[in-house]
C-alpha cells in the first residue's frame, strides 16, 4: 500500500503491462486454431495446374503464424488410384525463386505430410471425413478454427456434395465453414437463379465463395487499391469529362479444341465476358468506397454499379467464330457433315454506364479465341484537350501534353509479358505499394499498345503470383470482396441474358484465326452501336446464315386497312419511323412553336426510343411535350411502368425541359388508380390546358395480339366512345389496372402511327386487315383519325410472317 502511494506511476505501468500481456495471450489463444482444407476434384486439371500449388503457397505464407493445417484431397476415385494421381500433382510443387532450396525441400516435405487423399462418394464417406477431422483436432489438442471445401468439380455435382457437407461436415460452434465454387454458375439468369437457390438452401451467403480467377490476377486486384492510393490525382480525371473510352480486352491464341462440349453450350460471352470482363468493368466503373478494404463496402458499391448499366441490345454487340470451329464441333460432338455451329468464339460488346460519372463514355469489352496474340488489359484512354502547334520533333520527349494520355492495367502476356500498371508520363506519377510493386526497367524497343514503354510510369509486382494463390489466401482470410456474391452474380446475368437471347440465332462472322484474320474483326463505335469496321466479306465457307439479309429487300410501301403502310426489316423500319417523327416534329415546331407527342410503352417502341435518343441530334426536344398514351397502375419507378421505359431508353439521353414531360398521374394519395383520386380527369385537364383542341401532333400506338391498342382492350367498352379524354381500364394482362387515352381523343390527333413488330403479331395483322370498324372486338380497328392521318409501320415478320 505504502509502495503504491510512493510510486503510483510505476503501479499503473505495471498493471497496464500485465493487462496488455494477458490480452495478448488471450488473443494468441483466440487466433490459434486448426484449419482443414478439403479439395474436391483433387486429381482434376484445375487442381493439378493451379490449386495444389496455390494451397502450398498458402501454407508457405501461413506456416509458423497462428494456424495449423491439414489438406484433404478428395475425389470419386478409389483410395489407392486416387492417391497415386494426387501424388503426381504434388510432385511439381515449387517455392518462390528467392527461397533457399533446403528450406523449400523442408517445407514441401511438411506439406506432403499434412496432405492425404480420401475417396468421397457416399454420405458415409462425408461423415467419416468429419469424424476424422474432429478426432485429429482432439488428439493434437487443437482448437478447430474452420473448414474450407473447394469444389473443383463440374457444377452438376454441386448440389449432392453441398447436401453432404451441410448435413455432416459442418464444424462445431465457434469454427467457420467456407465453401468455394468454380464457374460456370449457370447459363443464363434463370439457371443461375436456380443453382443459387439450391446452394442457398445448404449454405449461408457468408459461407460461399464463388471464384472468378480474374479477380485474383495481380493487375486486376490492384485496380481498387490503385484508385484509392491515387485518389488525389484521379478525383478530377475519373469521369465522363476526361475519359474518352475504356477498353477491357482479353485476347487468346488458343482455340476451343478439346473443350467443345463445354464451349458449344457457353460461347465466349458466357465464358469470359459475363464474368471476367464484367467484374473488371465493375472495378473501373464503381464509385470508390471510402474504405476499399471493407469487403461489405466494396460489394455494395459494385452492386450499385451493376444497377447503372444500360441494357444491351443487338446493336451493342458483334460476334465472330474462327473458321475451324464448326469442323472441330462436328468431330468432338459427332455431328453430321452439314452441322454448322452458331456459337461465338469472338465478341465485342459496347457497354454504357448511366451515371453522372460515366454518361456517354463507351466501355468496350472484347474477347476471342484463335486471335493473333495472347494479351489481357484494361485501358482507360483520356481525352486530350491539348492543341499542339509545334511540330512533333519539338515535343518534350515522353511527357508532352500532345501525346496520348492513358492508364493501362496490363493483366498479362503481350509484348510486356507480365502484369503491370502503366500511367502516361503526361498524366501523373502514380503511387503504388512500395513493398510489393516496383518500377519496370526500361526495355529499349518495347512498345505497349503502340507507344514506347518510356512514355509511361510503369510498375510491376515484385513477385509475380498466380491468381489462385491470391484467391486462396483471400478465402483463408475471409476477404469476400474478391468473390462473386449471389446478388452480384444475378445482377450480371440479368444484364447479359437479354443480349444472349437476342444473339441466339445470330450468324457469327467467320474469321480464319491467328494472324490471317487481319483486320476482319476490327471494331467501330458508332453512336450507341458497335459494328465491324469492315464490310462482311464473302463467306469463307457457306454458313448456316443463308437467310435473306435486310439489304436484299427494299422498304415496301403499300396500304393496310386503306391507310399507308410502311414495311421493312426492323432496323430500317425503326429508322424510317424515327425520321418521320422528327420530320413531324420539325414541321410542328416551325408552325406552332411546339410539338405534342404521345408515346406508347411496351417492348416494340424501345428500339425507336433508342434510335431517337442516339441518332437524331436535330430533334427539337426543347420544344417537344411528351405525353403517355397509356400507363400501368404501378409506381412510376416500377420496371413495369411505361414511364420507366421512356425514362430508361429516351428521357435520360435527351434534354427535354422538365415541365414538358407529362407522366400519367396513376399514383396519387399513396394509392394507385383510385377512381376517387380523379387521376384520369387530371390528365385530361392537363391535355386540354396545353394541347390546342386536345389534338396531339402525333400519337404512337402499338397493336396487341388480341387487337388491343393503348390500354383499350377487347370486350371492355371503357374509352371506346363518349366524352372522356382519359379513362381507367382493366387489362386481361398483369398489372390489370390501367390508365389510357380514349379512342375519341386518339382520333383527334393530327397523325397516328401504329408500330407492329415481330412474328407473334402475324395472325392479328392478318385478321385486322380483313375486319371493318369493330372496336369492341378489336379496339385497334377503331383507330381512324377524324381529320388526321393514320400510318402503319410493320416489320416483315409481322406483315409477311
Ligand atoms: C477461363 C475460360 O475462365 O479463362 C477459358 O473458361 C479462358 O476459356 C481462361 O481460356 C483464360 O484464363 P487465363 O488465366 O489463362 O487468362
TrEMBL record:
GO terms for biological process: glucose metabolic process; pentose-phosphate shunt, oxidative branch. One of its GO terms (cellular component) is endoplasmic reticulum. Keywords: Carbohydrate metabolism, Glucose metabolism, Hydrolase, NADP, Oxidoreductase, Signal. One of its GO terms (molecular function) is glucose 1-dehydrogenase [NAD(P)+] activity. This is GDH/6PGL endoplasmic bifunctional protein. InterPro entries: 6-phosphogluconolactonase_DevB, G6P_DH, G6P_DH_AS, G6P_DH_C, G6P_DH_NAD-bd, Glc/Gal-6P_isomerase, NAD(P)-bd_dom_sf, NagB/RpiA_transferase-like. It comes from the Eukaryota. Residues 226-515 form the Glucose-6-phosphate dehydrogenase C-terminal domain. Residues 570-792 form the Glucosamine/galactosamine-6-phosphate isomerase domain. Residues 1-28 form the signal peptide. SUPFAM superfamilies: Glyceraldehyde-3-phosphate dehydrogenase-like, C-terminal domain, NAD(P)-binding Rossmann-fold domains, NagB/RpiA/CoA transferase-like. It holds the Pfam family G6PD_N. The lineage of its organism: Eukaryota, Metazoa, Chordata, Craniata, Vertebrata. Its EC number is 1.1.1.363, 1.1.1.47, 3.1.1.31. Pathway: Carbohydrate degradation; pentose phosphate pathway; D-ribulose 5-phosphate from D-glucose 6-phosphate (oxidative stage): step 2/3. Residues 38-220 form the Glucose-6-phosphate dehydrogenase NAD-binding domain. It catalyses: D-glucose 6-phosphate + NADP(+) = 6-phospho-D-glucono-1,5-lactone + NADPH + H(+); 6-phospho-D-glucono-1,5-lactone + H2O = 6-phospho-D-gluconate + H(+); 2-deoxy-D-glucose 6-phosphate + NAD(+) = 2-deoxy-6-phospho-D-glucono-1,5-lactone + NADH + H(+); D-galactose 6-phosphate + NADP(+) = 6-phospho-D-galactono-1,5-lactone + NADPH + H(+).
Amino acid at each position: 500500500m505504502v509502495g503504491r502511494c510512493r510510486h503510483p506511476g510505476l503501479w499503473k505501468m505495471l498493471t497496464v503491462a500485465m493487462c496488455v500481456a494477458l490480452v495478448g495471450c488471450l488473443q494468441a489463444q483466440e487466433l490459434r486454431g486448426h484449419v482443414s482444407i478439403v479439395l474436391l476434384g483433387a486429381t482434376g486439371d484445375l487442381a493439378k495446374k493451379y490449386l495444389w500449388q496455390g494451397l502450398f503457397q498458402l501454407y508457405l505464407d501461413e506456416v509458423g503464424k497462428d494456424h495449423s493445417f491439414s489438406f484433404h484431397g478428395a475425389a470419386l476415385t478409389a483410395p489407392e488410384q486416387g492417391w497415386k494421381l494426387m501424388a503426381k500433382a504434388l510432385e511439381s510443387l515449387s517455392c518462390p525463386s528467392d527461397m533457399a532450396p533446403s528450406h523449400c525441400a523442408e517445407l514441401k516435405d511438411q506439406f506432403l505430410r499434412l496432405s492425404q487423399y480420401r475417396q468421397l462418394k457416399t454420405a458415409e464417406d462425408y461423415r467419416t471425413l468429419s469424424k476424422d477431422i474432429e478426432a485429429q483436432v482432439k488428439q493434437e489438442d487443437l482448437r478447430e478454427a474452420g473448414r474450407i471445401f473447394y469444389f473443383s468439380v463440374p457444377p452438376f455435382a454441386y448440389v449432392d456434395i453441398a447436401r453432404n457437407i451441410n448435413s455432416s461436415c459442418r464444424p462445431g460452434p465457434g469454427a467457420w465453414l467456407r465453401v468455394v465454387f468454380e464457374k460456370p454458375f449457370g447459363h443464363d439468369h434463370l439457371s443461375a437463379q436456380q443453382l443459387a437457390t439450391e446452394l442457398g438452401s445448404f449454405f449461408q451467403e457468408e459461407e460461399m465463395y464463388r471464384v472468378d480467377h480474374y479477380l485474383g490476377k495481380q493487375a486486376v486486384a490492384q485496380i481498387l487499391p490503385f484508385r484509392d492510393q491515387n485518389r488525389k490525382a484521379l478525383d478530377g480525371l475519373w469521369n465522363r469529362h476526361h475519359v474518352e473510352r475504356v477498353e477491357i480486352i482479353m485476347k487468346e491464341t488458343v482455340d476451343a479444341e478439346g473443350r467443345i462440349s463445354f464451349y458449344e453450350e457457353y460461347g465466349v460471352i458466357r465464358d469470359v465476358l459475363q464474368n471476367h470482363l464484367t467484374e473488371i468493368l465493375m472495378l473501373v466503373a464503381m464509385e470508390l468506397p471510402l474504405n476499399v478494404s471493407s469487403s461489405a463496402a466494396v460489394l455494395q458499391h459494385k452492386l450499385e454499379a451493376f444497377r447503372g448499366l444500360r441494357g444491351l441490345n443487338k446493336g451493342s454487340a458483334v460476334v465472330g467464330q474462327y473458321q475451324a470451329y464448326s469442323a472441330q464441333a462436328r468431330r468432338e460432338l459427332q455431328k453430321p457433315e452439314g452441322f454448322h455451329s452458331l456459337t461465338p468464339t469472338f465478341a465485342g460488346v459496347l457497354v454504357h454506364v448511366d451515371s453522372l460519372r460515366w454518361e456517354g463514355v463507351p466501355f468496350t469489352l472484347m474477347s476471342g479465341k484463335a486471335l493473333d496474340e495472347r494479351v489481357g488489359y484494361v485501358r482507360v484512354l483520356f481525352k486530350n484537350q491539348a492543341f499542339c502547334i509545334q511540330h512533333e520533333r519539338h515535343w518534350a520527349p515522353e511527357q508532352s501534353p500532345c501525346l496520348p494520355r492513358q492508364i493501362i492495367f496490363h493483366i498479362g502476356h503481350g509484348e510486356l509479358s507480365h502484369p503491370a500498371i502503366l500511367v502516361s508520363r503526361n498524366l501523373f506519377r502514380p503511387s503504388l505499394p512500395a513493398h510489393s510493386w516496383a518500377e519496370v526497367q526500361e526495355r529499349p524497343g518495347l512498345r505497349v499498345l503502340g507507344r514506347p514503354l518510356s512514355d509511361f510510369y510503369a510498375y510491376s509486382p515484385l513477385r509475380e503470383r498466380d491468381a489462385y494463390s491470391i484467391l486462396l489466401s483471400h478465402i483463408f482470410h475471409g476477404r469476400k470482396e474478391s468473390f462473386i456474391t449471389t446478388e452480384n452474380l444475378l445482377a450480371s446475368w440479368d444484364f447479359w441474358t437479354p443480349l444472349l437471347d437476342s444473339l441466339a440465332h445470330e450468324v457469327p462472322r467467320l474469321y480464319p484465326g491467328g494472324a490471317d484474320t487481319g483486320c476482319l474483326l476490327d471494331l467501330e463505335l458508332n453512336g450507341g452501336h458497335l459494328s465491324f469496321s469492315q464490310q462482311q466479306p464473302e463467306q469463307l465457307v457457306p454458313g448456316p446464315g443463308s437467310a435473306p439479309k435486310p439489304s436484299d429487300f427494299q422498304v415496301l410501301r403499300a396500304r393496310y386497312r386503306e391507310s399507308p403502310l410502311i414495311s421493312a426489316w426492323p432496323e430500317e423500319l425503326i429508322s424510317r419511323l424515327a425520321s418521320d417523327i422528327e420530320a413531324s416534329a420539325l414541321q410542328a415546331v416551325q408552325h406552332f412553336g411546339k410539338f405534342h407527342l404521345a408515346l406508347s410503352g411496351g417492348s416494340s417502341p424501345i428500339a425507336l426510343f433508342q434510335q431517337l435518343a442516339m441518332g437524331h441530334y436535330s430533334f427539337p426536344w426543347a420544344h417537344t411535350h411528351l405525353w403517355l398514351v397509356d400507363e400501368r397502375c404501378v409506381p412510376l419507378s416500377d420496371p413495369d411502368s411505361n414511364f420507366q421505359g421512356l425514362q430508361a431508353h429516351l428521357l435520360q439521353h435527351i434534354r427535354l425541359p422538365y415541365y414538358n414531360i407529362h407522366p400519367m398521374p396513376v399514383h396519387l394519395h399513396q394509392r394507385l388508380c383510385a377512381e376517387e383520386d380523379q387521376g384520369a380527369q387530371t390528365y385530361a385537364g392537363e391535355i386540354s390546358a396545353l394541347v390546342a383542341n386536345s389534338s396531339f401532333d402525333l400519337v404512337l400506338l402499338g397493336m396487341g395480339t388480341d387487337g388491343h391498342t393503348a390500354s383499350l382492350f377487347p370486350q371492355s367498352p371503357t374509352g371506346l366512345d363518349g366524352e372522356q379524354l382519359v379513362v381507367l381500364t382493366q387489362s386481361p394482362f398483369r398489372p390489370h389496372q390501367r390508365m389510357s387515352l380514349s379512342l375519341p381523343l386518339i382520333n383527334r390527333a393530327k397523325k397516328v402511327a401504329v408500330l407492329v413488330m415481330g412474328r407473334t403479331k402475324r395472325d392479328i395483322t392478318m385478321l385486322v386487315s380483313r375486319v371493318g370498324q369493330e372496336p369492341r372486338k378489336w379496339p385497334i380497328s377503331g383507330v381512324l383519325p377524324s381529320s388526321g392521318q393514320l400510318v402503319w409501320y410493320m416489320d416483315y415478320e409481322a406483315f409477311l410472317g
